Amino acid sequence: MLQPYHAVVTGSHPEYHTPNTLKALQEYVDSGGRLAYLGGNGFYWRIATSAEIPDVVEVRRAEGGIRAWAAEPGEYFQALDGGYGGLWRRNGRPPQILCGVGFSAQGLFEGSYYRRMPGAADPRAAWIFEGIDDEILGDFGLSGGGAAGFELDRADPELGRPPNAIILARSEAHQSHHVVVPEELLTHATTVTGERPWALIRADLVYFETTAGGAVFSVGSITFCGSLSHNNYQNNISRMLENVLRRFLTK
């Protein structure tokens, strides 16, 4: 049960989720909980578990997605719970529904930075930038040298991004080895959104509130946490997260 907690914070790569874990997080947010999603490529694959063999986690890499191997036709359903495997996106639960962003691009372990967007000045979210005057955010860090890199998530209203979600910042200047994930491509030059492929190589930093008084802050990048300790934690990434967590824990 997550309801007793004022806030829940993910790690940098919460990729694999069962129906129950995803349901618990969604119910927590919908009932007024506050979620800080501090990674990228989160809530991506549907996995299965069983109480009869508790040390086993099953994943079926069906149809699409960036993957180390592909399940063959006829192997898409999971043996442990009978559910259809593969991406949560193809199971009707894109990550954008829960946290406002979802997997969009991947590269080598190298980072870039975010640039503040007009949404950062929105009165609903301006407090997140208290004490931060910089336009460029996170152009430093232990993980690939920048707060936005390796695996990147973007906001997309067609995939369930809440209509009140605010894009606070967006990454840019990613290295040439970053590519769009396969599920976004129709051909080598066209995407499901109609944007050019290079435009989907980005991390969106997003904030939104729920009708029950909850809130979600999502950073959309695996390398974000690697920038927190820069300059003995005296930096714009660390200050931004401090502002968010202090508000989440006290409001």
Would you mind describing this structure in some detail?
The structure is a single chain. By secondary structure, this protein is α+β, with helices and mostly antiparallel strands. It has three helices and twelve strands; from the N terminus they run ββαβββαβββββββα. The strands form two sheets. Strands 1, 3, 6, 7, 8, 9, 10, 11 and 12 form a nine-stranded mixed beta sheet that branches. It has a three-stranded mixed beta sheet with strand order 2-4-5. Strand 11 and strand 12 (215-218) form a beta hairpin.
Q: Tell me what portion of residues adopts beta-strand conformation.
A: 15-25%
Order of helices and strands: EEHEEEHEEEEEEEH
| Envelope shape | globular
Category from helices, strands and their pairing: alpha+beta
Biggest pleated-sheet summary: 9 strands, mixed
Pick out the low-confidence regions: none
C-alpha Rg (nearest Å): 18 Å
* Total strands: 12
Q: Note the total helix count.
A: 3
The averaged pLDDT comes out at 96
- What is the quaternary state of this protein? single chain
Q: What is the helix fraction of residues, given as a range? A: 10-25%
Euclidean distance between termini CA atoms: 21 Å
Search tags:
single chain, 251 residues, alpha+beta
Question: Short description, anyone?
Answer:
The protein is 13% helix and 23% strand. With 251 residues, it is of the alpha+beta class.
